[in-house]
Amino acid sequence: MTPAGPAQLLIVALVVIVLFGSNKLPDVARSVGRSMRIFKSEIKEMNKDQIESSDQTLKN
């Protein structure tokens, strides 16, 4: 699968603008950013818990 070219990115951008409207785009982008930060922090916590759990298992 090849990376998206400029034409594909332009089409996606136009579809997003049509779906959400230009007034809501900043809010949508902000929400996506927050969601990504939360998701990343949860993944880090899961990995941390998994490492701690495996350390406990190895000690026993």
In a few lines, what is going on in this structure?
By secondary structure, the protein is an all-alpha fold. It has helices at 6-20, 25-59.
Description:
The protein is mainly alpha-helical and 60 residues long. The mean pLDDT is 86. The chain has helices at 6-20, 25-59. The chain has a domain at 22-60. 83% of the residues lie in helices and 0% in strands.
pLDDT averaged residue by residue = 86
Largest sheet entry: none
Question: What's the total count of β strands?
Answer: 0
Envelope shape? elongated
CA-CA gap between termini: 46 Å
Keywords: Cell membrane, Membrane, Protein transport, Translocation, Transmembrane, Transmembrane helix, Transport
Membrane topology: Single-pass membrane protein
Function: Part of the twin-arginine translocation (Tat) system that transports large folded proteins containing a characteristic twin-arginine motif in their signal peptide across membranes. TatA could form the protein-conducting channel of the Tat system.
Subcellular location: Cell membrane
Key words describing this protein structure:
60 residues; mainly alpha; 2 helices; 0% strand
Give the topology.
Layout: H1 6-20, H2 25-59
Protein name: Sec-independent protein translocase protein TatA
Family: Belongs to the TatA/E family.
Transmembrane segments: 1-21
